[in-house]
């Protein structure tokens, strides 16, 4: 239980006759708060702020307070007679001047003041609430004029309201209580309904918690599966690495054996030739010279035909994962999606009514007497709707001052006449949407009251395109339109790639990028030249070229580079989800 709720004082609304704050007596200049507690004039001045008056029951009353016009009973305090030099306790009160007198002085007071009718001299303290007739200010009210919605005395009704229907206050009090009982019954029914909605809301929260746990488990399972595959791939790569390393070392050792053999061969012929030179037998030297030369040339040819030393000794293990790792990272970034269904915003149902205006409307017969079984028609000036920014807007005011312009979901341009989707509440220009809408189609056209945009249409039947066709069929075109719409509606990123850069202002772009292409080029080719693209893969290639050209031209730190990355990730995610077997 909330601690603030525990501190709320339970005060009887009517029987105490005391101010809710200071417990002081209630005077005619007191007020009633919206929570129906009474506040005296002094406390009104102390408690009032720009934000209204917060009662002890924690309800806040904003705007003007309700006037409390009933003279309350006063059984606790006694007063002395108002006549000069009279110290006797007051026993009478003049309802005309609101002064109190003792019994003797009460008889002389009307004589001294001829305009003060003796009938208005009542017993003091008042034993019950008293209202004098607003017409004659002499008699007590006893009837209610149903035409004028005022309480008057029977004589004034006979003199001034004779054509009007009336009800005795005693009978009307019974009927009012009966109507209150009916309203209480309706409120109880409403509360039962609201309690059931709260119960459903709590159940929905528990259901969401369960779904959250389930999704968390699925996410963990998916990530664990990915980690298992990563670890498995890691072991495979390390095994391949070990095999390649062993093979490289073995081959290098084999080369070393060959080199050692050549060294031995060269050393042998070197030593033989040296011994021949050192031998003084000239005849034998000449006789063996041809054989020796041939063998030495053969030995030298082994080394001469051999590759350069740097190439022989060079061996390198290369690990190439840049492209594959990048694709894996992009796939993981696009892995999974969490969506939330639309939740009704009950803040739209917050309506406040200015009580004084409503009461004046009743007094002036501007609103029918409210019954539980009758529809309620409140004046436009009475109802004020609380907007999200907490500003109070009269419903009968000029709505054009408060209706904001909306922007197209594709081009992000503000305008007034846009076609609205009934599902997602996005707005589109006729020519921005894909497929484009007829130019003569207007927002209030009956034919589009239930219209769904391409982003809200079911496309599951179009998934899994796996072949490279000679031409793009209608299903493939719808899927491509969906992909383009998804990219366009990322308008903060796609706005940089809808058109190619101006050749005169950005000549460097055309030096770096050959045959540039833009999103609008692709869109125009799909819409106006159906024969341009003969296969889905050609469109995907052009889309990827748009973003790769942007990444080629802009630096990594440039915002447009980041936009190209985001769009490319979105494109890859859609391809992996909708066309997993399409390789581009």
Keywords for this structure?
disordered N terminus; mainly alpha; 584 residues; 3-stranded antiparallel sheet
Provide the structure class.
mainly alpha
Largest sheet: 3 strands, antiparallel
Overall mean pLDDT stands at: 77
In spatial order, strands of the major sheet run 2-1-5
**CA(first)-CA(last) distance:** 62 Å
Helix amount, in percent? Answer: 40-55%
The number of helical elements comes to: 15
Query: What value does the Rg take, in angstroms?
Result: 48 Å
Strand content: 5-15%
Number of strands: 18
Low-confidence stretches: 1-8, 71-77, 361-403
Shape: elongated
Topology:
Elements: H1 3-6, E1 31-32, E2 38-39, H2 41-47, E3 53-54, E4 60-61, E5 66-67, E6 92-94, E7 99-101, H3 103-112, E8 121-123, E9 143-145, E10 150-152, H4 154-160, E11 166-168, H5 169-278, H6 282-304, H7 309-313, H8 322-333, E12 351-353, H9 355-363, E13 383-386, E14 392-394, E15 406-407, E16 414-415, E17 419-420, E18 427-428, H10 474-488, H11 491-494, H12 507-512, H13 519-528, H14 536-553, H15 559-578
Antiparallel strand pairs: 1-2, 1-5, 3-4, 6-7, 6-8, 9-10, 9-11, 12-13, 13-14, 15-16, 17-18
Q: Can you describe what's shown?
A:
The protein is mainly alpha-helical and 584 residues long. It has 15 helices and 18 strands. The chain has a 3-stranded antiparallel sheet. A 3-stranded antiparallel sheet has the order 7-6-8. A 3-stranded antiparallel sheet has the order 10-9-11. The longest helix has 110 residues, at 169-278. It is elongated, with a radius of gyration of 48 Å.
């Amino acid at each position: 239980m909330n601690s603030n709720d525990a501190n709320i004082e339970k005060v009887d609304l009517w029987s105490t006759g005391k101010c809710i704050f200071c417990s002081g007596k209630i005077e005619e200049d007191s007020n009633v708060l919206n929570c129906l507690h009474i506040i005296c004039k002094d406390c009104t001045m102390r408690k009032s702020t720009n934000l209204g008056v917060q009662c002890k029951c924690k309800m806040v009353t904003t705007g003007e307070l309700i006037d409390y016009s009933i003279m309350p009973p006063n059984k606790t305090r006694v007063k002395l007679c108002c006549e000069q030099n009279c110290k006797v306790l007051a026993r009478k009160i003049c309802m005309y001047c609101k002064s109190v007198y003792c019994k003797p002085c009460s008889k002389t007071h009307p004589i001294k003041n001829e305009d003060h009718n003796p009938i208005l001299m009542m017993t003091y303290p008042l034993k019950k609430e008293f209202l004098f007739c607003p017409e004659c200010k002499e008699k007590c009210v006893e009837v209610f004029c149903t035409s004028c919605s005022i309480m008057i005395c029977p004589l004034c009704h006979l003199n001034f309201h004779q054509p009007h229907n009336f009800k005795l206050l005693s009978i009307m009090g019974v009927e009012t209580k009966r109507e209150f009982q009916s309203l209480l019954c309706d409120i109880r029914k409403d509360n039962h309904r609201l309690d059931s909605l709260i119960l459903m809301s709590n159940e929905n929260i528990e259901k969401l918690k369960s779904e959250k746990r389930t999704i968390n488990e699925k996410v963990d399972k998916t990530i664990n599966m990915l980690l298992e595959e990563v670890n498995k791939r890691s072991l495979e790569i390390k095994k391949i690495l070990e095999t390649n390393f062993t093979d490289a070392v073995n081959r290098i050792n084999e080369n070393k054996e060959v080199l050692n053999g050549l060294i031995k061969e060269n050393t042998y012929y070197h030593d033989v030739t040296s011994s021949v030179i050192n031998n003084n037998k000239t005849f034998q030297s000449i006789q063996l010279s041809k054989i020796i030369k041939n063998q030495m040339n053969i030995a030298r040819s082994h080394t001469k035909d051999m590759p350069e030393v740097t190439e022989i000794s060079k061996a390198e293990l290369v690990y190439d994962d840049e492209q594959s790792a990048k694709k894996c990272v992009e796939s993981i970034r696009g892995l999974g999606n969490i969506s939330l269904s639309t939740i009704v915003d009950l803040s739209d149902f917050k309506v406040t009514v200015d009580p004084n205006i409503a009461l004046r409307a009743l007094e002036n017969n501007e609103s029918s007497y409210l019954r539980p079984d009758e529809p309620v028609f409140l004046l436009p000036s009475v109802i004020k709707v609380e907007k999200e920014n907490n500003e109070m807007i009269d419903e009968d005011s000029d709505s054009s001052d408060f209706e904001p312009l909306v922007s197209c979901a594709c081009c992000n341009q503000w305008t007034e006449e846009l076609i609205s989707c009934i599902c997602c509440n996005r707005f589109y220009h006729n020519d921005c949407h894909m497929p484009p809408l007829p130019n003569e189609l207007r927002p209030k056209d009956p034919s589009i009251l239930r219209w769904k945009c391409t982003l809200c249409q079911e496309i599951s039947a179009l998934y899994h395109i796996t072949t490279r066709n000679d031409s793009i069929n209608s299903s493939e075109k719808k899927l491509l339109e969906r992909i383009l719409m998804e990219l366009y509606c990322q308008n903060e990123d796609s706005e940089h790639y809808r058109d190619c850069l101006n050749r005169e202002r950005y000549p460097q772009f055309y030096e770096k990028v050959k045959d540039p292409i833009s999103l609008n080029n692709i869109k125009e080719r799909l819409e106006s030249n159906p024969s341009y693209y003969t296969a889905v893969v050609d469109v995907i290639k052009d889309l990827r070229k748009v973003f790769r050209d942007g990444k080629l031209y802009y630096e990594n730190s440039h915002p447009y580079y980041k936009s190209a990355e985001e769009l490319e990730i979105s494109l890859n995610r859609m391809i992996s989800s909708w066309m997993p077997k399409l390789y581009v």
